Amino acid sequence: MSALQLSHLCHRYNGNIAVEDVTFSLAPGARLAIVGPSGCGKTTLMRLIAGFELPHTGTIVMDARTLVSASESVPAHLRNIGYLPQDGALFPHLSVAANIGFAMPGSTKANRRHIEELAERVSLPPTMLARWPHELSGGQQQRVALARALAQKPALMLLDEPFSALDTGLRANMRNAVVEVLNDAGVTAILVTHDQQEALSFATVLAVMGNGRLRQMGAPMDLYLRPDDEQIATFLGEAIFLDAQAQEGYATCALGKIPLCTAAASGQVRIMLRPEQLRIDPIESSALGARAQVVRRIPCGSQCRITLALAPPSSGSQFSATCLDVLVPEALAPVTGSRVTVHVLGRAHGMGSPGKRSPSSP
Ligand code: ADP
After folding, report:
1. Domains in the chain: boundaries
2. Closest of 294, 288, 293, 254 to residue 271, by C-alpha
3. What does CATH list as the number for 240-352?
4. Domain 4-225 adopts which CATH fold?
5. Run means of pLDDT, 10 residues per run, the chain, 362 residues
């Protein structure tokens, strides 16, 4: 049985499409991350599920209970859905304890034990319970908001960019803590984010949205390594695209002969590799791999971005000379002008014929 089933959900604001024909189901305990460019309908989709907006058409069923159909709509406060917004949205006039216990029947004093348990679950020391929201850091405020949302024992937790106001280190810590808490509580969750790294490390299921529609949905690494088109590929991280000739499970391209993820493609194809699939050998050798020269080197902290000009193909080759951008550890980055050999690790993903590029907008 699905924990959540959305069927043909559509929503418009003043006639403009925000969510278009969205259909998917989630298994109990799944963590779905939705990514997509700003304005593609992520927040609207969350608001439809939460009950803050009523869809124009479509149905929402949660744990076999219909929340929205053509004839009914369960109000937001009766849906048993937790919502964690970007800023935590704590009540400024209530203490941390009162914020966590807000939805509990009875007084904060009577609920003390339960509030302390929830605070512990989100790693807030008991000394913080007496504080006011403005006396907390951004990360601590988000922990309080999470504890408050968990207090409702939600069947589904919606997380709308809840880490975006936090700095990088804290962001990763908070994300890991939330995953742990959701796992322990067995709560199904949906995270909206524009940060692909965050999505890939949070999700058991990943969805890419564009123009109100679901573009692709599946296992996170499946989408990362086998995206449906170039836009989805680049949305999920850096990618290298090359024209190639496919035959019997291999693609021959400017980088040599590379095994393909699926053997089905044949003839002219466009292939995708992730930059981490390239290994740069500082010795130029023509025996294995492709020869290249480092033409640019941009240090960026622990890593260095180098631009490689692949050696011009032999006369008669159908592949043109190509430049590639690759990230390598700074300590191992070859100097500009040096000659190297490029080896490909793993398989390439065939994305259709070279003439068939992605649609112009997501
Ligand atoms: P995202 O969360 O992916 O950035 P949104 O769901 O916020 O996207 O917005 C989807 C589209 O709906 C955008 O074009 C946005 O301008 C529009 N939109 C969102 N909220 C409203 C609103 N309350 N009134 C009118 N248009 C809105």
Report:
1. 4-225, 240-352
2. 254
3. 2.40.50.140
4. Rossmann fold (3.40.50)
5. 93 96 96 94 96 96 95 93 84 94 82 89 88 90 88 90 77 83 89 89 95 96 94 92 92 91 83 91 74 92 91 61 86 91 93 54 33
Token pair listed for 177: 């803590």
Specify the ligand 1 atom closest to the Cα of 40: 3
From the CA of 19, give the closest atom in ligand 1.
10
Q: Ligand 1 centre and the CA of 162: distance in Å?
A: 18
Q: Which residues line ligand 1 (CB under 6 A)?
A: 13, 18, 36, 38-44
DSSP strand pairing (267-273 vs 278-281): unpaired
Structure tokens of 141? Answer: 């405020």
Q: State the burial class of residue 174 (Cβ atoms within 10 Å of its Cβ: 0-12, 13-18, 19+).
A: buried
Ligand 1 mutation pick, 10, 13, 164, max ligand atoms within 8 A of CB:
13
What's the sign of the alpha-carbon dihedral 175, 176, 181, 183?
A: positive
Burial 20-55 (b: 16+ CB within 10 A, else e): bebebebeeebbbbbbbeeebbbbbbbbbbbbebeb
Structure tokens at 266: 């044949």
Residue 17 C-alpha to ligand 1 middle, in angstroms?
9
Residue labelled with tokens 């207090």: 151
